[in-house]
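Hi team,

Below is the intake form for Peptidase from Stigmatella aurantiaca. Please confirm the fields before the structure is written into the shared record.

FORM ID: S-0412
PROTEIN: Peptidase
ORGANISM: Stigmatella aurantiaca
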Amino acid sequence: PLPVPPGRIAVNINIDGANINGRTRDLTVIGLGKSSLDALIAGLAKAQGRVVKGDQLSDRGFFYRSDQFNFAKLGIPAAYFGSGMDFVGRPEGWGKQQRETWEEQHYHQPSDELRPEWDWTGAVEDTQLFFLLGAHVARTPEMPRWNKGDEFEAPRLEALKRAK
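The structure came back. Fields below:
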């Protein structure tokens, strides 16, 4: 059980992993098109000089396998995003190659540990966006909502009704 009713929780911001390869020109939003958070995230990304893209690995079902899913089932709008694949100062396809190499050789392996050569500038940029998103939601009287017809809209409306 949650410490407060789901209808009183404005948003779940899922921070899962960090960009260790540097700054990107894009931002990947897992679940793009599901909630009112999309426009806010796009505006914050634009202020950083980045564009928003949808999940480039949607066949893996990350939205339904990640931590925010249990919050979404209760109706709580979820923000799950991270750096994209278009890395500043790197050739096209470099980000995809880095991700594939990491997943094949290191992810959940003994070698999956901190490395001195990592470039944390992308993680910093993402963290700033996470913070600004949370600050904006906290200052705004209107709660984020699921888009009309989304599978999580009905649980959200019920949660808001119960919270009154």
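SUMMARY LINE: Helices lie at 37-47, 62-65, 69-73, 94-105, 121-139, 153-163.

Thanks, M.
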